[in-house]
Amino acid sequence: MTLEFPNQSRSFDEMRGAIRFSGYDGMMQVPFLIEAAALTKSNGLTAARTPSEAVCLAAFDEARASIEDVARIIYSRNRRPLYVLTSADFSGRSR
């Protein structure tokens, strides 16, 4: 099956400094995290300060289509209980 993202919800995980979101492969939920560093890099924020929850959520919303595309690629490579997207996953891609 194809990984889909019908649920537009996302949340900020302060402990991990990441945004949580989910995809679905049929009936199976597939959890993802995207590190704040991967989000802020695309918005030109410096890594010297920790971005706020609002900044991270806004950056996620702005880049959602690209994030979901990368999530599909990562998911297609192998199956894991949790997928963590980092800046390296987006290198060479424009958001």
Account of the 3D structure:
Strands 1, 2, 3, 4 and 5 form a five-stranded mixed beta sheet that branches. A hairpin with a 2-residue loop joins strand 3 and strand 4. The model has no long low-confidence stretch (mean pLDDT 87). 21% of the residues are buried. Helix 1 crosses helix 2 (53-62). The longest helix is centred in the last third of the chain and has 14 residues, at 64-77. Helix content is 37%, strand content 26%. It is α+β, with helices and mostly antiparallel strands and 95 residues long. It has helices at 36-42, 53-62, 64-77, 87-90; strands at residues 3-4, 10-13, 18-25, 28-35, 83-85. The protein has four helices and five strands, in the order E-E-E-E-H-H-H-E-H. The radius of gyration is 13 Å and the shape is globular.
Q: Which key phrases capture this entry?
A:
4 helices; 95 residues; alpha+beta; five-stranded mixed sheet; 26% strand
Helix fraction by DSSP (H/I, runs of at least 4):
25-40%
Low-pLDDT runs of 5+ residues are none
- Content of β-strand: 25-35%
Mean pLDDT: 87
The total of beta strands comes to: 5
Tally of helical segments: 4
Write the H/E string, N to C.
EEEEHHHEH
Name the overall outline: globular
Given helix and strand content, the structural type is: alpha+beta
The largest pleated sheet is described as:
5 strands, mixed
Kindly report how far apart the N and C termini lie: 25 Å
